[in-house]
Design goal:
It is globular and about 70 Å long. It is about 70% helix and about 0% strand. It contains 13 helices and 2 strands; from the N terminus they run ααααααββααααααα. With about 375 residues, the chain is mainly alpha-helical. β1 and β2 form a beta hairpin. α3 runs antiparallel to α11 and α9 packs antiparallel against α10. The chain has a single domain, classed as Rhodopsin 7-helix transmembrane proteins (Rhopdopsin 7-helix transmembrane proteins, Up-down Bundle), CATH 1.20.1070.10. The protein has a two-stranded antiparallel ribbon. Keywords: Cell membrane, Disulfide bond, G-protein coupled receptor, Glycoprotein, Membrane, Phosphoprotein, Receptor, Transducer, Transmembrane, Transmembrane helix.
C-alpha cells in the first residue's frame, strides 16, 4: 500500500461534465498548459525503498514471533502471539499486493506519458484494487482490537482467561474478522456499490469526494465507522489494562512482609514481565494505528456526513487531503513490525542496562542470591 502515495503525477485536464474521470484537474490548469511534471516521469526510488523495507520488516517480525510462539505455545502468551502473527501476515500481504497493483498503475501512467488522454484502469482491475484496499485496511484494525481485548481479559481476569480465551476461540475470532472484512470489501464486486479511480489515478477506493450514490456513501460510512470503533475499543481496553498493571505494581511495592516475598514471587514476577512486554507492544501498535489511520477514517466520515447534508467542497482540495491522509495510513504496515522488532524483552533489557547498569547488576545479583539460597535450603 506504500508506493501508492510517494508521488502524485499530474495529468492534462479533460473538458467533461462526467464525474467518472480518471484524472482531476488541478487548480488553474488548462488543457493546453504544459507542466514540468509531464516532461519527467515520477521517481520510483522511494516507492521501491518503502516497499522493500516494509516487506523485510514484516518478515523479520514474523520470524521473531514464530520463535516466541514455539516457546510459549502452551502458555497464556500463545493467543496474543497468534493474533499478532495474523496481524503481521495481513500487513505483509496488504503491503505487497496493493503495492504491486499501485506500481502497475504508476508504470501505466509512465507508458502513456505525454498523451492527450490517459486511459482509466479497467473496471475489473479497479474493483480488485479497491477490494484489496478495503480488506487489508480493515483486517489489521480488527486484529489489533482483538489483541487489546484479549490482553484486557488476561490482565484483569487472569483466572478466567484460560477458560475464556482458548486457542480454538482465537482461531474462530480470526475467521470471523476475515469474514467481516471480506463481506464489506466484496459487496462492490457483487454490484452493491462501486470502486472508482482516485486522485492522482494510481489507486482505487470507494468514492468519497465525487457525486456518489446512497449505496457508495453507506459503504464508505461503514468502513470508516468500523475502523474508528476498533480504534476506540483498542484504546479503552489498553487503558484498562495499563491501569490494572500500575495498580498491581503499586500493591507489590506496598508489600513488605518477607513471607509474601518468598511465596510465588518468581512466578508472579515472570508473569508480570510477560504482561508488561505484551502491553508495551500493544500500546505501541495502538498508537501507531491511531496516528496513521485516524485522519483517513475521520476524513471519510466527515466527507460522507457532508454528502448526506448536501454540502459540496472544491474537489481538488478534497482529493489532495484524501491522498495526504492515505499516505499517512500506508505507513501503518511499515511501522507495525518494528514494534515487535524493537520492543522485545531482550532489547528492552539491553537498553535498561545501558541506561541504568547498576540497577540491572543489582537485580541480577539479588536474583542469583535468592536462587542460591533456595538450592542450599533444598540440600
Amino acid at each position: 500500500m506504500d508506493n501508492l502515495f510517494t508521488s502524485s503525477f499530474p495529468v492534462k485536464c479533460q473538458n467533461s461534465r462526467d464525474y467518472n474521470l480518471t484524472t482531476v484537474c488541478p487548480d488553474n490548469q488548462t488543457l493546453n498548459s504544459t507542466s514540468p511534471a509531464l516532461v519527467n516521469p515520477p521517481a520510483f526510488g522511494m516507492s521501491y525503498f518503502t516497499m522493500t523495507l516494509g516487506a523485510l520488516s514484516n518478515l523479520t517480525a514474523l520470524a521473531i514471533l514464530a520463535h516466541s510462539y514455539a516457546r510459549f505455545r502452551r502458555r497464556a502468551k500463545a493467543p496474543f502471539l497468534l493474533l499478532a502473527s495474523a496481524l503481521l501476515l495481513s500487513d505483509l500481504a496488504g503491503h505487497v499486493i496493493t503495492g504491486a497493483l499501485a506500481l502497475h498503475l504508476h508504470l501505466g501512467r509512465v507508458k502513456h506519458h505525454g498523451a492527450a488522454a490517459i486511459m482509466e484502469p479497467p473496471h475489473v482491475y479497479c474493483k480488485l484494487f479497491g477490494s484489496c484496499m478495503v480488506f487489508f485496511g480493515l483486517c489489521p484494525l480488527l486484529l489489533g482490537s482483538a489483541m487489546a481485548v484479549e490482553r484486557c481479559i488476561g490482565i484483569t481476569q487472569p483466572l478466567l482467561h484460560p477458560a475464556v480465551v482458548t486457542m480454538t476461540r482465537v482461531r474462530l475470532t480470526m475467521l470471523l474478522i476475515t469474514f467481516m472484512a471480506l463481506i464489506l470489501a466484496g459487496l462492490p464486486l457483487l454490484n452493491v456499490g462501486n470502486y472508482k479511480p482516485q486522485f492522482p489515478g494510481t489507486w482505487c477506493f470507494l468514492p468519497v469526494n465525487s457525486l456518489i450514490s446512497i449505496t457508495d456513501a453507506s459503504l464508505s460510512l461503514a468502513f470508516s465507522t468500523l475502523g474508528l470503533v476498533t480504534l476506540t475499543v483498542s484504546v479503552v481496553s489498553n487503558t484498562i489494562s495499563g491501569l490494572k498493571l500500575f495498580q498491581a505494581r503499586f500493591k507489590d511495592r506496598s508489600v513488605k512482609s518477607s513471607a509474601a516475598r518468598r511465596h510465588g514471587s518468581f512466578s508472579a514476577s515472570s508473569l508480570h514481565s510477560l504482561d508488561v512486554e505484551m502491553m508495551t507492544q500493544l500500546a505501541a501498535i495502538t498508537v501507531v494505528s491511531c496516528v496513521c489511520w485516524s485522519p483517513f477514517l475521520i476524513y471519510i466520515l466527515i466527507s460522507v456526513s457532508r454528502f448526506y447534508e448536501g454540502i459540496r467542497r472544491p474537489r481538488p482540495q478534497c482529493e489532495k487531503l484524501l491522498l495526504l491522509a492515505l499516505r499517512l495510513a500506508s505507513w501503518n504496515q511499515i511501522l507495525d513490525p518494528w514494534v515487535y522488532i524493537l520492543l522485545r524483552r531482550a532489547v528492552l533489557r539491553r537498553l535498561l542496562q545501558l541506561l541504568q547498569p547498576d540497577r540491572v547488576l543489582f537485580t541480577q545479583s539479588s536474583s542469583y542470591r535468592d536462587s542460591h539460597r533456595k538450592q542450599i535450603s533444598l540440600h
